[in-house]
Amino acid sequence: MSTIRVRLDLAYDGTAFAGWASQPGPRTVQGTLSGALGMVLRCPDPRLTVAGRTDAGVHARRQVAHLDLDRDVWRGVCGRLAGTPGQVLVRRLAGVLPDDVVVHRADEAPPGFDARFSALSRRYVYRIADDAALVDPLRRVPVLRHRVPLDAPAMHAATQALVGLNDYAAFCKPRPEATTVRTVLALDVARRAEGADAGLVTVAIEADAFCHSMVRSIVGALMAVGEGRRSEAWPGELLAGRVRAATVAPARGLTLEDVRYPPDAELAERAERTRARRPPVGAGDCGCDD
């Protein structure tokens, strides 16, 4: 039988999950989604490949994953229901998934698509409420409550040394033989003036990929600057010295906001280039995001 690749766009509240990756015992996003797919598709839990393996407690507004299915299984999703296989799969998953995971879209992926290796970048935002007047109990899940006022301009000034192609060993939990070299494309700290995040301090970071705990370690270093405990030069000094000294910020404030891909015609080439640079999961590179 021929197979097709299906792309899933999903979101989740990471509070009650021990991260994305399946593991014996703890509840994970991958395990929960695989179980729901197996139930709906009436096949053994399918293997999912994800754009970024988020850590325990980290949320995702836009996560991307793929799975390979027999074409007959894909076509058989509809049964007697009206709609495309993707539309019907989304509706059926809504009936079996818990409230803290939702699949927004399912479609046959274009040729060459790989959720992980085709990605150009991942973008995270860390949200902090450093004033009691800004604390919203209805947003307690994705926003960190911080009792010390932060100097957002000082934090932003400290980001400049962290942008570019660097070895981020100072901000990553070490793993045997795993590379800690990444390219940070953008890093911004601001106190938002309007919108849903008005008044909050947000740390937005985009990179080609992230190693384990990298985003939260960078946020922890920037918060030390914002509190006045460290100089604006300190995060850059950590980077240069490859010394782990920053406190890792709590997971609850961190959300994967977006995964960026090239045009369809460039997906296969991008995946091939990325694979050449980074070994598979389990062979040195953890494949993790924060």
Structure, described:
The chain has 290 residues and is an alpha+beta fold. It is built from 7 helices and 10 strands. It has helices at residues 29-41, 71-75, 85-94, 152-159, 214-226, 234-241, 267-277, and strands at residues 3-12, 49-50, 59-70, 101-108, 121-129, 144-145, 164-167, 181-191, 201-207, 254-260. Strands 1, 2, 3, 4, 5, 6, 7, 8, 9 and 10 form a 10-stranded mixed β-sheet that branches. A hairpin with an 8-residue loop joins β2 (49-50) and β3 (59-70). The longest helix has 13 residues, at 29-41. The relative contact order is 0.18. Mean pLDDT is 93; it is low at 281-287.
Order of secondary-structure elements: EHEEHHEEEHEEEHHEH
Number of strands: 10
Number of helices: 7
What general form does the structure show?
A: globular
- The low-pLDDT segments are 281-287
- How far apart, in Å, are the first and last alpha carbons? 37 Å
The mean pLDDT is: 93
Question: What share of the residues lie within helices?
Answer: 10-25%
Structural class: alpha+beta
